Records
---
Amino acid sequence: MAEQSLPLSVDERIEQHNLWWAFHKHLMIEIFEVLRDGLGDEYLVDLESEILLVSKAGPTRSAAPDVTLSATPSGAAPSDTPKPTLTPALIEADEEVMEFEQYSVHIRRRDRPHSDDPFGVQVVSVLELLSPSNKGASGPRDRQKFLAKRQDYLLSPVSYTEIDLLRGGERELPAAVAELADYPYIAWSSQWRPQARHYWGWGWQVEDSLPTIGVPLEYPHVYPLNLALCYQRAHERNRWPERLQLVEGRS
């Protein structure tokens, strides 16, 4: 199937069938490759990941325990305290937990040393593609963690880009781009400039093609990222029409 034959709008079925965990990676790989190949030799582009544990049953509580147990040191005498008989439980069940790998793109400038970076050079731009957990699908903890990380970027000299292709979940935006909240799909970016932080925002309807957005680097540089092309490649190369046909054939 030729790339031109595929729709350039968002395929809503991916979110409807709870398959974003798979498509997220496919799309981020295409975005990474376009940026890696399109930026000059002075940049290093990396696809970085973080593992999240998400309950399929919905929000989960914090993993911090109320009581901790320690093993008896080897050779220590066992306690003489009699052990109570376990009262039969009213409920005993397993709750399936899914491992989700959240990806982001980090762009570094090779000629800007930074001692705290693994490669010894400065991160100048970060791109995030939102997942359901970023928008509260697995409870408030992951969402709050994501928003705190985003705020750290916005209070630093790092440029930032965020893409939200999910209609579900909570959406919280900086005041400068708050008007985007009513669009089904959005993207926005921000660049540190002398005396200010500059913002761009894009919003589009379900039937619209994905836009070409600006991915800001260090001021004044901005790279045009064709989201429609990245989406199209992710959709076709990973056989999403066939995947969705299989899923819908089971229902």
---
Amino acid sequence: MQQEPEKSSSFRKTQVNTTTSTDNVVGKDSSIDSVLSLTDLVNVQSINPSIFVDLKYSTTDNFMKMKLYERLKTAYLQKDVAERLSKCQAYLSSIDSSLHLLIYDAVRPVSTQAKMWKALDSIPSKERGKYVSNPANKSLHNFGAAVDLTICDSKGKALDMGAQFDEFNEIAYPTMEAHFLSKGLLTQQQINNRKLLRKVMKSQGFRNLPTEWWHFNACSRNDALTKYKILDKEPKL
């Protein structure tokens, strides 16, 4: 979900369409795809339809239990990031042709980021930053340069990772896997599933967040600031 750090207590993000932040140049008849293209964002499934999408924040199946996206219904990323993710899918298919990447969240407007940050205001800012990036600092999600995802089978059933998406407890931390395995709270198969996801994503240079097994960054925040535009909010169409 987040990007450097993001989230807090214990919570959790299907195939879709999205939006960008520059509604000053968007006409009434513009589609979300064309609007997002103004910030160089592309529909991931237009690059590789073998990648599945279950956009959790366009549903109530998330830690806030409410729809956070009004018009975003599928996953959008920067074009070069989407192309790298497509190569990850090709690599996964070469390992097991029945498996697919399943995206839970991709580009996320800063306005949505702010709602998440405020929802966790009972947590001190420094600690909160482990789970949701401070909207003032921006998240790589805001650029379309981070992706939350898992692996699923051909029917869309996600592999068991031992912790739900948006799980705020330490059992979701990749850095704590050995500890929870020794305690019998994670199985070797669950860890192997996480390792497969990391292996596939690492093949194209994506970096896993230490506190979220599902979150992968395409680049650093500094790189994103020089290369990409920020999606401030969902545009009105």
---
Amino acid sequence: MIDFLKTISDEQRLRIINLVDLKKLCVCDLESTLKIKQSTLSSHLSKLRKVNVIDFEKDGKWIYYFLNDNLDIDFKKIISIILNNFRKTDIAKNDINNLEKLNSGCKQKKNIIVICTSNSCRSQITEAIIRNYSDSKVFSAGLNPKPTVNENIKKFLAKKFPDLKFFPKHIDNFKDDYFDYAIFVCKDAYNSSKYSVNAKNILFWDIEDIDNDNVTESEINNVYNKLLNKVKKELLK
């Protein structure tokens, strides 16, 4: 009971519950409607599944979430009472209005994840390049992410892509998501996790590791150009 109440008390998770109670929704539709980053959204969905509030089903490569019909009846009553009151708020009304206007983008844009060990260097560069050169939905993540992106890498990317933000994410944030492409830019991550990612296509780009405090702008630019060529030849062809 305590875990259940703690989970549904979060405002963003309550917004998710509100929408999946109305219809089955994929992550792309929830992200577009709620304006929540996919990594954050995936974390919320995982927590809601853990207490059995929501369930999911697969339709081909897409995963759709909905309120769990097998939820304990007392918990269902609690959610019903909460939703009846929550839907009177401007936040809930706005979410429902946005959902009604939404044209699902799931089948229009490719979902791509770029994976390495620390998510502080090569995967961050690759994510930034793909974001800039395509309309794909792209994320980067690490098996053991560092607390922050390499400072020299961050400064380099900030000059090229001033509108983008760069921060490490853990691969577990995306464990329930499906991707058209999973791109590994680290041999260790590829060898240990290539079979555990839910993706149609698995790519491995063997790029040297430059994640150190003394990396120069010239070295970063060299890796950037190698990754840019990879993106253009293998993703934008």
